[in-house]
Write a structure and sequence with these properties.
Helix content: 55-70%
Number of domains: 1
Structural class: alpha+beta
Strand order of the largest sheet: 1-2
Shape: flat
């Protein structure tokens, strides 16, 4: 999980250094309603946080 967080953070950092901002290229929308725009680095970070929360609850 920590590797996913580091990888996602590094991906976003590279975007910021290269493009001046994080490039979000995946868009979820329905008709005219745009729900969420993200990139793979965001997916990795979010997935890692979910894994860490799950591990914390299972450790009890």
């Amino acid at each position: 999980a920590y590797a996913l967080i580091c990888g996602g953070a590094l991906g976003n950092l590279i975007d910021r250094l290269w493009h001046g901002a994080v490039v979000d290229f995946i868009s979820l929308h329905a008709a005219e309603y745009y729900w969420y725009v993200f990139n793979l680095a965001d997916v990795w970070i979010t997935g890692a946080v979910i894994i860490l929360i799950d591990d914390a609850f299972r450790a009890r």
